[in-house]
Write a structure and sequence with these properties.
Structural class: alpha/beta
Shape: extended
Helix content: 40-55%
Largest sheet: 6 strands, mixed
Number of helices: 28
Number of strands: 22
Distance between the termini: 89 Å
Strand content: 15-25%
CATH class of the largest domain: Alpha Beta
């Protein structure tokens, strides 16, 4: 029991007056030993309270937690263990039976104890003409679609002036376009830009080194700017723009805005920013707009010519006349198939031209993975005018208005050819939309003219009456087909309906033509209509045995064809360097684990369990052969696989990082159930490459299977990754759900070499 301070004081006062300790104990009501404790105390200065450490259920697991947290120091901040994730892993993987609060306190204390001395915030002073740049996300309706708008926010910390531009992405072209819009709006150019590493302008490859994207590099040169990139995880270095992102999102984007385009949305945002400049500066006590007007006096004037933020790429058009940029296809036109073309990418549009300067197409730029080809329908009209029969299956058929599309369906080949040529010329002059709307208007006008001219005495009625007499059937058995509006050129004719006159028998040539047309119709329907279970069941109910037999063989052939196509596609996408198979493979040099053997490998059960295989041994003993053969067998069973050399995978990830598409590349790799990483340790990997490879392994943990081939034992993996802690984290994940298969003996290549 703690003795109150007042009692302690009374004990010491009485002791100072010479009262015996026994008498003091009786007077204050405490034990004699307590009196002796406080009466004889030499120092009564305040002391910090220390809680005595008690044994915890977490004690046996602290080393494991330390390893996880230490490995986190090499991971991105948003991809590190939380206390909850540490607790879940301890429970599921290590059998921890303690409380979550103990884990939470330990993780917090560990991070406090391992904080770097350099961590902390510095108070910064900003000068006139310095601007901070960052992106923020907000939802808005643009062009009728609800989308995520990337808001480029530019702030001037000296005056606290804030501006915002709406953009479809965060690449270098968008950064340059947004900054140009802000510069032209204020009529001046700042002296210095402070940017985040996350923007598309540059990428930090070391603590003090940033690789600047070429488009932004020329932008900086054009506007005579100085740039500075913040240190990693140091948002305080641009605290002005960090606060402005949230402020503008709350005060401008609430409620959700609705605009026809990003440009319209940007204009509204800039107007709102100017209106909010009437507020008073939180420190200087003057209006923000007035302070900014004075700040602009220290800035640079706008250059004579604005900067065109465009990135040029060289691409070869495929057989359909398409080029692929950033994972999306853009149609240059069928006539440009096989050409090597220059592709210019701006923030909002894509320009495709020949290398001698002729423009092929101007298309809107899309972001993300678009399943459809971006195209201007007018580019396909010249090809359609030559191949009029392709109209039915053409991709631009749905781009035509309903009435014009129906009219073209009824035209013969010659009339279609003329129609497509006319629309192509009109599109070149006024655009495709205006051309097809004009065509629809002509169709409507022609229909009205025909209704006004059709009476019982006209030529159309006479032809119908003569056809009825010739066939000898009722008028309701006759239907009009191939009727082309007079405004589009040619008048249609008449043909019979479903009723076939008994006296007129078609000859063999006509029957063969009819059969060919029916086959073409069936092929068209097969491409457009997937099988429906109910409709299929209804048809089978009335089918004859021979018809059922035909349908069964047809469907088996279709399934077999699809499986063959899928296997071929998976094998091609895997990227195996050679056609290695298990047939004739020599298993004698392999030493399997005690509980694991050849049967478990060849059945590919390890893929279903997300287990890893480490094929370890000297060069030439068959490691790569076995890894490729297992990967090819997986593809034949419909399991996607990818092959990489360790060095090739690292270079691929570094290129993706420099092109600002690392997340997309990692996501694509993460969707593959089986990864083959060959020649691990054959080529040294730098620090950046090691971190990227570590990220692949971490993402694959318990979700994918990896087959490693290496000639370096686990003890030497620290040299591969350049860091023992990172190597330990990778080994920890590999051994948890993995097995090492050892290869022994001499090199097969050496024993079969021509040079003996």
């Amino acid at each position: 029991m703690t003795v109150p301070v007042s009692v302690q004081q009374r004990i010491r006062v009485l002791d100072a007056h010479g009262v015996s300790w026994r008498s003091i104990a009786k007077e204050v009501g405490v034990a004699r030993d307590t009196v002796a404790k406080y009466a004889g105390r030499e120092d009564c200065s305040p002391k910090p309270e220390h809680s005595a450490s008690r044994p915890s259920k977490l004690d046996p697991f602290k080393a494991t937690v330390d390893g996880w947290l230490e490995a986190d120091r090499f991971m991105p901040r948003k991809q590190r263990h939380t206390a909850k994730r540490v607790y879940d892993r301890l429970v599921s993987e290590r059998g921890y039976g303690g409380a979550y609060s103990s884990v939470q306190r330990y993780v917090k204390r560990w991070r406090e104890e391992h904080r770097l001395p350099s961590d902390g915030y510095l108070e910064l002073e900003w000068h006139p003409g310095e601007a901070q740049v960052d992106f923020g996300m907000a939802r808005a309706v643009v062009g009728g679609d609800r989308v995520d708008v990337h808001c480029l926010v530019v702030t001037f910390p000296y005056s606290n002036m804030r501006y915002c531009a709406a953009l479809p992405g965060e690449n270098a072209e968008c950064v340059c376009a947004g900054l140009r819009t802000v510069f032209e709006h204020i009529g001046a150019v700042p002296l210095t830009l402070v940017l985040d590493n996350a923007t598309g302008a540059g990428h930090r490859i070391a603590w003090d080194k940033v690789t600047v994207v070429h488009v932004f590099e020329l932008f900086v040169e054009h506007y005579r700017l100085e740039t500075r990139f913040c240190n990693p995880n140091s948002g305080n270095e641009k605290g002005s723009v960090e606060n402005a992102v949230g402020f503008l999102r709350r005060n401008i984007m609430v409620p959700m805005l609705n605009a026809e385009s990003h440009g319209q949305l940007t204009r509204y945002m800039l107007e709102r920013c100017d209106a909010m400049a009437k507020e008073t500066h939180y420190r200087k006590g003057a209006p923000i707009g007035g302070l900014f007007a004075g700040e602009k006096m220290d800035m640079q004037p706008l250059p004579a010519k604005p900067y065109d933020a465009i990135r040029w790429e060289v691409r070869k058009a495929d057989k359909d006349g398409r080029v692929q940029i950033d994972g999306n296809y853009y149609l240059a036109g069928p006539s440009w198939r096989g050409w090597t073309l220059d592709v210019g990418l701006r923030a909002f549009d894509v320009t495709i031209r020949t290398q001698d300067g002729r423009t092929c197409a101007r298309l809107p730029r899309v972001y993300g993975d678009s399943p459809a080809t971006v195209r201007n329908p007018a580019t396909l009209l010249p090809a359609l005018s030559r191949k009029t029969h392709a109209w039915t299956d053409s991709t631009i058929r749905d781009d035509f208005p309903d009435k014009l599309r129906i009219a073209i369906d009824r035209m013969d080949a010659k009339t279609r050819r003329t129609t497509f040529r006319v629309i192509a010329k009109a599109s070149a002059a006024s655009g495709f939309e205006a051309a097809v709307r004009a065509g629809e208007h002509l169709v409507e006008q022609g229909a009205r003219d025909r209704r006004g001219q059709c009476d019982h005495h006209g030529p159309a009625h006479r032809r119908r009456r003569e056809a009825v007499r010739a066939v000898g059937t009722r008028p309701d058995r006759i239907r009009r087909v191939h009727e082309t509006p007079t405004a589009m050129g040619k008048e249609g004719g008449l043909t019979m309906g479903t009723h076939r006159p008994p006296v007129v028998m078609p000859d063999m040539k006509r029957r063969r033509a009819s059969t060919g047309e029916r086959i073409a119709t069936i092929m068209t329907l097969a491409r457009r209509l997937p099988l429906t279970r109910q409709v299929l069941a209804d048809q089978l109910a009335d089918a004859t045995p021979s018809q059922m037999e035909f349908m069964e063989s047809w469907m088996n052939a279709e399934i077999e064809s699809r499986e063959r196509s899928k296997r071929s596609r998976l094998l091609k996408a895997a990227g195996f360097p050679a056609d290695k198979e298990l047939g004739g493979y020599d298993w004698t040099p392999i030493r399997f684990p005690v509980d694991y053997g050849r049967g478990q490998i060849t059945t590919l059960d390890f893929i279903a369990g997300h287990d890893d295989l480490v094929l370890f041994g000297p060069p030439g003993t068959g490691k790569t052969h076995l890894a490729i053969a297992l990967g090819r067998n997986a593809c034949r069973k419909g399991i996607p696989a990818r092959y990489f050399t360790a060095a090739g995978l690292v270079m691929r990830l570094l290129r993706a990082q420099s092109d600002n598409r690392l997340d997309r590349e990692l996501a694509a790799i993460g969707r593959t159930p089986l990864l083959v990483i060959d020649e691990l340790g054959y080529v040294p990997i730098d620090e950046d490459g090691s971190r990227l490879l570590f990220q692949v392994v971490t993402n694959a943990y318990e979700t994918q299977s990896i087959i490693y081939t290496t000639n370096i034992e686990f003890s030497g993996w620290g040299r591969i990754f350049g860091d023992p802690n990172m190597a330990a984290a990778i080994i920890d994940r590999t051994v948890h759900h993995g097995r090492m298969i050892r290869f022994e003996g001499e090199s097969w290549r050496k024993t079969h070499a021509l040079m003996q």
